[in-house]
Design brief:
It is built from 4 helices and 6 strands. By secondary structure, it is of the alpha+beta class. It has a single domain, classed as Roll (Nuclear Transport Factor 2, Chain: A). Strands 2-1-6-5-4-3 form a 6-stranded mixed sheet. The model is unreliable at 177-182 (pLDDT under 50).
Length: 185
């Protein structure tokens, strides 16, 4: 087989692998939401590397045991939840790692109220034993608003309004002090 043909085949293999990896990462993000909503902690733990970091409300959780404990505690306040991803940008590195930005929403029922959360997950992924997993996942919040507040609260800088907690400034959005939103890591 001519060298040019071998190079072409190798390039096609690499491109196909990239497409397969991209699809696997999209499926990982979709399974994440379903596992949280179903309180399927075994499935959720399997989506993270053993030394993973999850950073959202409160202090970062490090390691799958701490991450699952965080989720158990956090979701115990929700009568129901529904997480759904929207867009997913992925950047691959040459060393079995990748980074992503996932724009998402969650609907939660807290204290009898429906609460909407808009957020971005800033993700670092690792290829472990042939499977992509979360290594680091940071949630940055655009807003947390009761359904009744959504029409007027979205434009307020203090639009993180968890029930029973003082309003806080948004973590992402055009009005944030830095003036720029996070890029993929």
């Amino acid at each position: 087989m001519p060298i040019d043909m071998k190079d072409e085949i190798n390039e096609l293999r690499a491109r196909l692998q990239c497409l397969e990896d991209r699809e696997e990462l999209r499926a990982l993000v979709a399974r994440y939401g379903r596992a949280v909503d179903d309180r399927d902690w075994e499935s959720l733990a399997d989506q993270y590397t053993p030394d993973a970091i999850f950073d959202s409300v409160g202090e970062p959780a490090v390691g799958t045991d701490a991450i699952i404990e965080y989720y158990k505690e956090r979701t115990s306040a929700y009568a129901a939840s529904y997480h759904y991803p929207h867009s997913h940008e992925i950047t691959f590195n040459d060393d079995g790692t990748a980074a992503g930005v996932v724009c998402a929403h969650a609907e939660l029922t807290i204290e009898g109220e429906t609460v909407f959360v808009a957020l971005r997950y800033l993700d670092d992924y690792r290829l472990v034993e042939g499977r992509w997993r979360f290594f680091e996942r940071e949630a940055r919040i655009l807003y947390v608003l009761k359904l009744s507040e959504l029409p007027t609260g979205f434009g307020d800088r203090m639009r993180i309004r968890w029930p029973g907690v003082a309003p806080q400034p948004a973590q992402i959005g055009a009005d944030i002090a830095s003036g720029r939103t996070p890029e993929p890591r």
